[in-house]
Design brief:
This protein is of the alpha+beta class and about 190 residues long. The chain is about 40% helix and about 25% strand. It has two domains: about 5-65, no CATH class; about 105-190, Ribosomal protein S6/Translation elongation factor EF1B (Alpha-Beta Plaits). A four-stranded antiparallel beta sheet has the order 2-3-1-4, with helices on one face. The chain starts with 6 loop residues before the first helix and ends with a strand.
């Protein structure tokens, strides 16, 4: 069932409704507000219909700001801005291509490898540690450092490429030599 009412009566009813409500539906602007706004032919008289006038001014200010409150997808694309964006993107790609790849991030790591006891053959332990090969891992200098009670630990340095090798991965590989290694600690870590 549909009812036809005059514009004046419609505005009066709407003014009464907006006396207690900020918007047509809910507490924010909605599609319903947009439809009612479009149905009004002109701005209402502020003295005769103060609540409708307040609501109308608020919705109109939102429409004037070009804020798409109602989710319309029919916005026109600014072709000039799009061309400028594409041009800048191409310039950026060309500049990046001439630069070449960035150098790989490297780190210098010093590890303390602790044996189980003083009878562990540290020369053999060092050979086993150096036998670990990974892409991005280069072993460096090593030395035996006394811990106490005749026990020494192996302190060994390596350079790693961060993208390929992590310290956790190296520690896991070294601790897999369970007969010789009690624990592995990172003694020093420095980005190069």
């Amino acid at each position: 069932m549909s009812v036809t009412v005059s514009a004046k009566l419609f505005e009066t009813i709407l003014n009464g409704y907006l006396e207690d409500n900020s918007f047509i539906v809910g507490s924010d602007l909605s599609q319903a507000d947009s439809e009612v706004f479009k149905a009004l032919s002109a701005a209402p008289d502020a003295k005769a219909l103060p609540h409708l006038s307040r609501w109308y001014s608020h919705v109109k200010s939102q429409e004037d700001e070009d804020i798409d409150l109602f989710g319309s997808d029919d916005e026109e694309v600014d072709e000039e801005a799009e061309k400028l964006k594409q041009q800048r993107l191409e310039e950026y790609k060309a500049k990046k291509a001439t630069k070449g790849p960035a150098p790989a991030a490297k780190s210098m790591v010093t590890l303390d490898v602790k044996p189980w006891d003083d009878e562990t053959d540290l020369a053999e332990l060092e050979k086993k540690v150096r036998s670990i090969e990974m892409n991005g891992l280069t072993w460096g200098a090593s030395k035996l450092v006394p811990i106490g009670y005749g026990i020494k630990k192996l302190r060994i340095s390596c350079v790693i490429i961060d993208e390929f090798v992590s310290t956790d991965l190296i520690e896991e590989q070294i601790t897999s030599f369970e007969d010789h290694v009690q624990s592995v600690d990172v003694e020093a870590f420095q980005k190069l």
